[in-house]
Design goal:
501 residues; alpha+beta; 5-stranded mixed β-sheet; 15 helices; 7 strands; 9% strand
Amino acid sequence: MDKKVLFFLFSLLFCATLASAQEVQKSDLQKRAEAVDPKQNIASARSLYIHAFNDYYNKGQIRQGVECAVKATALYYKENFYKEAFDLLHRADDAINSSKQSASEKAASHYLVTKERLQMYMKLRKGESAKDQLKILESFASQTSDENVKNDLLYTKAIYYYTFGQNAQGNAVFKEMADKLTAQKEYDKVDEVYQTLIANGRKSNNANMVAQSYSNYIAWKDSASAMKHADEIAALKKQIADNEAAISEKDSSLTTRQVIIIGLCIVLAALAAALVVGGVVLMRFILLTRKQKKTIKLANESDALKAKFISNISAQLEPTLKKLDDSIPEVQALLDFSNRIQTLSELQNSANKELEMEDVQIQQFCEDLLGEVRDKIKKDVTLSVNVPKMNVCINKEYVSHILLHLLSNAAEYTPAGGNIWLDFKKRSPHKYQFLVSDTGCGIPEEKQDDVFKPFLEIRDLTTGDGLGLPICRQMAQNMNGDLSIDSQFTKGARFVMDLNV
């Protein structure tokens, strides 16, 4: 009997299923090994498979490594290098034992190694050794609880029995395989196997095998035909039952559809009425929105005129104020107030203008700012900078002005022995945050919103005009950001400037 043909046949039936269950991404080394034709350069293919085995093992991919080791083993004993082949399989077993695979995964990997060792013993015609390996193979197959492995075990056992002339046992295993395929309704595959068995019996002049195979084939054919007819009848009955159920369902659904149609008509009438009402409401909303837009436009124009008016007054007063003696504190305070008014007006009028940005090393930038206020702090006040080393694209002029004003205020209100911090945080790829914190007297919560509103109260200009923080907030808003007070910070005051770039 031609055992190579039989082995090829069984492989077609089961090996593809077993391989597909373990399909993984192949490494470059394995792809290179598979690309080499063993007939042309068997040593090169074998070497690449061994390198792939070592590479997979180092990466912890044991199953893929074992598959490469098995392929390299087959190329070893193909040239009768049995010692090297057995040594490589021993290394594969060691790799499996030392791996972190589960018990079931280890059993599946050992199954592949043991199966290849069995193939070598069968080729060497060592019956007892092959029998021992078959028992071990059965043990590993039971540990995996994998149906594909159990199917593979059946054809491996059949090959073993046929190899050592145990045709009865081989036929029994084959019948088990045929029954299993028949139960799965794989009739064509079973028919093909029987035909090949009969052909192989004729080629090997084994009349007993031909007769036995043909007898089994005829018996199976009759049984399969009966099962096919039974399946076809069952399918027809099911189709008839499904059609009857569908007809019954359609009949019973006609009344339901009529009710649904009447209900839909009522709903459509209600929707039509709702659309009429909605149209009236929408028209009123549109008219109201237009009125609101007009009001907002007039308010914005009024604010712009007010800002321009205040700026003009300030500009007209400035020449006269400059003629006064600026050594007088009140005169100097009035000049500063006039300049701040102009600055605030200019900022409000240029709110939509694009600002010039530049790349700044933010840590050095912040340290330089702290250096400018270091001589203003009280005794034993600690200045801290918590800023990473990174470059940030900002408007240097506005950011410097805001931070210097906040740091100067912190220096003024932080008592001796206190602390002042300047922090920078990157909240997202396009959002930055500066925080100026101090341990001073803080700002009462009810006044935190008022500090950003200009001209809110009459002041003694020599003690401050109250425009510093409004100017800072307007600058932050012109940079597509904002300036606020952290109301959750209760150990002093903390100002937070958010910038969106």
